[in-house]
Amino acid sequence: MVTKDNAEKILSRVDTLPLYLHAYAYHLNMRLERILPGDLLDIAYENQLRGVKIHVLDGENYSLGNMNDDALANFADKARRLSLDVHIETSASDKDTLDQAVRIALKTGASSVRFYPRYEGHLQEVMAKIAQDIRYLKAQYQHCGLTFTMEQHEDLQSHELVALIEQSDMPELSLLFDFANMINANEQPLAALEVMSPRITQVHIKDALMVPEKGGLGHKACVSGQGDMPFKALLTSLICLGDDKPQVVAYGLEEEVDYYAPAFRFDDEGDNPWIPWRQMSETPLPEESLLDARLQQEKQDAVQQIHFVRDVLQQIKAEADYILNR
Question: What is the C-alpha to C-alpha distance for residues 76 and 211, in angstroms, rounded to an integer?
Answer without folding.
Answer: 41
